[in-house]
Design goal:
The complex is a heterotrimer of chains A (292), B (339) and C (278). Chain A has 292 residues and is an all-alpha fold. Chain A has helices at 2-11, 27-50, 61-68, 70-103, 106-118, 124-135, 140-147, 161-186, 189-197, 202-230, 234-239, 247-257, 261-291. Chain C is 76% helix and 0% strand.
């Protein structure tokens, strides 16, 4: 019997439809969590999306408003733009860090990984305010640059798009680094060792073997960062100086201040469709990575 | 004489209510309020005497917002029978049919200003949006000065809320106070366009402007009075400030017993002595006509409603903001996207 | 097994000068990135011992007043208690439900698995304001709005995706044959899971639990909607920041950092055998 199961699992990634294992294996373990999420998330969300069709006489009026009054799409577009920049920043900063960590001794790896985890413990709020102290006109960085004579007047790092991206990148970087680093650790070092033994230069080994092997994880992490940025609220509110409108801030306006829930629900619907498309990409990359 | 009679009648009424409701009385009510020092002032100024008098506890919940009121009413589960609303929110809430009218006979208010008595709300706290600057900068006397970046150089920080800055733009453009409303939106936004490059931060949290001044991030701000009048190194003027009133209201569907308790609490809020205690915590003032002499005289200039400050300010037109709420907000977002 | 470090040590003969430049550059970049990550912590810790009324750096003088203001304020302590209760309860629930589900998703092979997996991740990708409003309405109708269990449920839903995400990856990399050996030797599934799978996946489970814990501990938006009169640390912090920038929050952050350093060191000592990040 055990052998049977084993066969089923072995062939699973490539041709799951050809062999039929015990029907529902593993399903029992999923059920409790599934009930939990259906009752506490799906049902409320569906009820809420139902709002977007109110009033029922003109069920599409809210959607029509989103697509005719350009401001909504512009804010969504601006949010995607910020999310894309944050994603690029996280990848460019996170990958070298992971690669470097990967090459360290186990002890140092642990220490560095712990430092990355530590950043989680400082509330987003506190970190956001810390950036004001660091990067403000009278902040540490500007004062240093001024005393060193590198600049004549303070550089405006904050209260603009740059400020928001610094803030979001700082908060989200660990979300890219930790899974990417874990993926690198799972790589079979023997492959690289073999290449090295065969006399391949390090640059070639990195670009031809290491990087392609870790690229799917990087891409998966990137999509995660992108999606997470879409929901950011506090950072743009404080570090954006009111100049960088993002969806969550607009939602807050529509939910708490106006309160136009029907419209907020419709925007949620639109946003949901977009995120689902990105998420499908994430799933696809993940599956491809597992298959390889 | 009439007042005394009314008062006596009210007293008798509440005594009667007290006896009939003896066993139906609630032991605790929830209040939704804005939080912060204003919340502390409610605790000290109003909740304490109220609980001493009635034995009913009050649990404060924050922050406030129209969203929460709508959720309570639509779910038919009014968990908090008393909730704080800004003046324009009050109008919106009325239009959305989210409130129950107040029984002013049951509240039986001590003498308070007329604008604080609304069919659906008790105006309980005045606050102003005023000009403030870093100590050492050239003092401003009008919004025209605020807009005059050549003679008053420095970065600005303005509210990220149209209702606290659009009227100021018109004043800066030379519109007389009495002709402010209905607001000329096009003109106001055009005036804002002029200065937007000098506005370093559009603030969202009331705590931001004083911090920005202290950090020397900006030199001039439009800020809520209570946030800047007590801050070291910050100077301010009430000149051409916009006076506003925030309200307490009862969400539609609150139980009768809870309402009775709320009316008693509201009565406590109209008493001058209690308002003075609250004003000691935060430099905002209650609506009592007898309040001024009770305020600490050394801090008297910090309060938005003392006569000398009241005279130089103008009152917000909440009705106009309600009528135009959505259009203004959309144009505001569009304006900011162009930043 | 030869570690890459040993391999590198032997390598220089084969490498060219670009290699050393490359690794030198990587180190510089990586250390800068690490500095960028840690910078907020590095300024927050000294500021927590500051004598100044506002957030200023460097601090003008040393004092413990912000720690006093935290420990001397019953409302901060109450907020801390609520935060810990909610975070521990919700992350534990998420870890238990989520890891079981992750196991089922990886080892199972039935129709609709992908869709269910995607569904578990939904709370992560739906902006939190939306979730907050949806839950607010729903909980109000169920009558659990403003209650601690309601808040815990809300946070559990938020933590679940992180657990599922981390645990599916971990279980996928765990050799299924080891489980089969245990099962074929007559062990029950639950026993096998507890005595074979869990110990091997402990580091990942710890990481997943930690993620869920932190998500709950730092959550503001959903808490604002669901918590009612309950206050958590971030909620109170946010309210404080709205009124005045109060350095007490830096003292709290520093306390949290110290606690987590102690926790991590303990975990590291315990998990030395198996290695932390598997």
């Amino acid at each position: 019997m055990a052998g049977n199961v084993e066969v089923a699992h072995r062939v699973q990634p490539t041709s799951s439809r050809l062999t039929l294992p015990k029907l529902g294996e593993g399903f029992a373990q999923v059920v409790p969590a599934l009930i939990l999420i259906l009752l506490l998330f799906n049902v409320p969300l569906v009820i809420m999306l139902g709002w977007s069709f109110y009033p029922l006489e003109t069920p599409l009026a809210n959607y029509e408003q989103i697509f005719t009054r350009s401001i909504y799409l512009k804010v969504i577009g601006n949010t995607f733009y910020i999310a894309a920049l944050t994603t690029v920043a996280c990848c460019l900063l996170g990958y070298p860090l992971c690669y470097w960590m990967w090459r360290l001794s186990p002890r140092w790896r642990l220490i560095i990984a712990s430092i990355v985890v530590l950043t989680f413990w400082v509330s987003i709020l506190v970190r956001t305010y810390a950036w004001i102290v660091i990067l403000g006109n009278d902040g540490i960085v500007n004062r240093l640059l001024l005393t060193w004579g590198l600049i004549d007047s303070s550089v405006s790092f904050l209260y603009n798009q740059t400020g928001v991206i610094i803030g979001t990148t700082n908060v989200l970087l660990p979300f890219l680094v930790l899974p990417l680093f874990a993926a690198m650790m799972r790589l079979d070092r023997r492959i690289l060792l073999a290449a090295e033994t065969l006399g391949a230069p390090k640059g070639v080994i990195f670009w031809k073997i290491f990087f392609p092997l870790t690229l799917p994880s990087l891409a998966a992490g990137a999509i995660l960062i992108f999606i997470l940025t879409l929901g950011f609220f506090i950072t743009p509110a404080i570090l954006g100086g009111g100049r960088v409108p993002m969806i969550a801030n607009m939602m807050d306006l529509l939910i708490n201040r106006l309160p136009r829930w029907e419209l907020a629900a419709a925007i949620s619907g639109v946003l949901l469709v977009f995120t689902m498309i990105f998420f499908a990409g994430y799933q696809w990359l993940n599956n491809r990575q597992q298959a390889s | 004489m009439t007042r005394a009679l009314l008062g006596a009648a009210g007293l008798a009424g509440s005594l009667m209510l007290g006896t009939t409701l003896a066993f139906a009385q609630v032991s605790e009510i929830r209040m939704i309020e804005a939080g912060g020092p204003s919340g502390e002032s409610i605790e000290v100024g109003y909740i304490k005497p109220f609980t001493e008098k009635t034995g009913i506890r009050v649990v404060r919940e924050n922050p406030a917002g129209l969203g929460k009121v709508r959720a309570m009413v639509e779910s038919r589960n009014v968990t908090a029978p008393i909730t704080e609303l800004s003046s324009s929110e009050l109008e919106q809430a009325k239009a959305l049919d989210l409130l129950d009218p107040l029984d002013w006979d049951a509240i039986d208010p001590a003498p308070i200003y007329e604008e604080a008595i609304d069919e659906y709300g008790l105006g309980w706290q005045y606050y102003s949006t005023i000009m403030a600057w870093r100590e050492g900068e050239k003092p401003l006397t009008s919004w025209a000065d605020m807009w005059d970046v050549d003679n008053f150089p420095g970065a600005r920080s303005f509210p990220d809320y149209p209702n606290y800055i659009l009227p100021m733009a018109l004043l800066a453009d030379g519109v007389p106070v009495e002709e402010l409303y209905p607001l000329d939106m096009d003109r106001a936004f055009a005036k804002l366009e002029e200065i937007k490059d000098h506005v370093a931060v559009w603030w969202e949290a009331g705590a931001q402007p004083p911090q920005l001044l202290q950090d020397n991030e900006v030199q001039y701000v439009a800020a809520w009075s209570g946030r800047v009048t007590d801050v070291e190194g910050v100077e301010y003027t009430f000149e051409q400030g916009q006076l506003d009133l925030t309200y307490f209201a009862i969400p539609k569907g609150a139980s009768e017993e809870a309402k009775e308790a709320v009316y008693q609490l509201m009565h406590v809020m109209t008493i001058a002595e209690n308002q003075a205690a609250a004003a000691d915590i935060v430099s905002y003032t209650g609506p009592s006509q007898d309040l001024d002499p009770l305020l600490p005289q050394d801090r008297i200039t910090k309060y938005p409603t003392v006569q000398q400050n009241r005279d130089v300010q103008f009152f917000i037109d909440a009705q106009w903001w309600f009528d135009n709420a959505e259009e203004v907000e959309l144009r505001w977002q569009e304006f900011k996207l162009g930043l | 097994m030869v570690s890459s470090r040993d391999a590198r040590r032997k390598a220089p003969a084969a490498g060219s000068w670009t290699d050393s430049v490359g690794s030198w550059a990587t180190t510089v970049v990586a250390v800068s990135v690490l500095l960028f990550l840690a910078l907020p912590i590095l300024v927050v810790i000294p500021m927590s011992f500051s004598s100044a009324e506002a957030l200023t750096f460097p601090p003008p003088g040393f004092s413990l007043r912000w720690y006093e203001s935290f420990f001397g304020d019953a409302r901060w302590l109450q907020a801390a208690r609520t935060s810990i209760i909610v975070a521990v309860a919700s992350s534990t629930l998420a870890a238990v439900f989520g890891s079981a589900a992750a196991y089922g998703l990886v080892r199972g092979n039935w129709f609709g698995r992908g869709a269910i997996e995607a569904n578990f991740l939904l709370p992560l990708i739906v902006p939190q304001v939306i979730t907050a409003l949806a839950l607010y309405m729903y909980f109000a109708r169920l009558g659990i709005l403003g209650t601690l269990p309601g808040l815990i449920m809300g946070h559990t839903v938020l933590g679940l995706p992180y657990v599922v995400l981390i645990m599916t990856v971990a279980i996928r990399s765990f050799d299924v044959r080891i489980e089969q050996v245990a099962l074929s030797l007559g062990s029950s599934w639950s026993r096998m899971f507890v005595s074979v799978v869990l110990p091997n996946l402990a580091p990942s489970l710890a990481a997943a639990w930690l993620f869920a814990f932190v998500i709950s501990f730092d959550e503001v938006i959903i808490t604002f909607f669901l918590a009612g009169a309950h206050e958590t640390i971030p909620k109170r912090m946010f309210n404080e920041l709205m009124l005045q920038v109060n350095p007490t929050i830096t003292a709290i952050a520093t306390l949290l950092i110290s606690i987590s350093i102690i926790t991590i060191s303990t975990l590291a000592l315990l998990a030395r055998r198996s290695g932390l990040l598997r």
